[in-house]
Amino acid sequence: MEASEGWRRRTIDGGHGGWAWACSRTVGDRERARERKKKRHLLLASAASTLPTATASAAAAAPSFSEIPGSGGVKALELREGSGEVPADGDQVAIHYYGRLAAKQGWRFDSTYDHKDETGDPMPFVFTVGAGKVIPGIEAAVKSMRVGGLRRVIIPPSQGYQNTSQEPIPPNFFDRQRLFTTIFNPTRLANGEGSTLGTLIFDIELISIRQHS
């Protein structure tokens, strides 16, 4: 950077200040764009990271994310295997979750553990599988889980929020506003950032299934 600054000063002194300043800004803009892209890649990589390991053998044995077949790119990491039944279309399921937004450094925009009933117990999120009311990435994750299971999923924008009426919707107004103004930011979408704005990370625990009769 010092050499670049020196070149710019010498050129300005030589009578070509306007052209040198324009070139300097163009180079700077490209550098900033590369830096933003690098930060996004690091952010997504950190979201997908697993527990740190101390040895090569431990690293080889560490669990990793794998794509759920037919999910449109949803990746899952099993944190705890369930032993109960697997839901089917038409079943009503209850889940607990932590929802985070990759574009905001993993900001947690919602958690069912913060939703309390009148006794102070956390209230699970309940929905009907296959009804199309929740974002596709959550449905894909839950449909391949067993009751009692816990998994972390990375949901690409195409399987996340496509509009502001899809569930789960954060009950807090400010969290909801921040979430949707980030995902549907028209300026950033026009700049081609849509491939990262809506990436979600969910920790999902399947609590129970009420089978469709």
From TrEMBL:
Domain named PPIase FKBP-type: residues: 90-210
Pfam families membership: FKBP_C
Isomerase in keyword set: yes
Single GO molecular function: peptidyl-prolyl cis-trans isomerase activity
UniProt-listed Enzyme Commission number(s): 5.2.1.8
GO annotation, cellular component aspect: chloroplast thylakoid lumen
Enzyme class: isomerase
Source organism, top-level taxon: Eukaryota
Gene3D superfamilies given in the database record: 3.10.50.40
Key words, A-Z: Isomerase, Rotamase
Keyword Isomerase: yes
Transmembrane regions listed in the UniProt entry: none
Protein known as: peptidylprolyl isomerase
Classification via InterPro entries: FKBP17-1-like, PPIase_dom_sf, PPIase_FKBP_dom
Catalytic activity reported: [protein]-peptidylproline (omega=180) = [protein]-peptidylproline (omega=0)
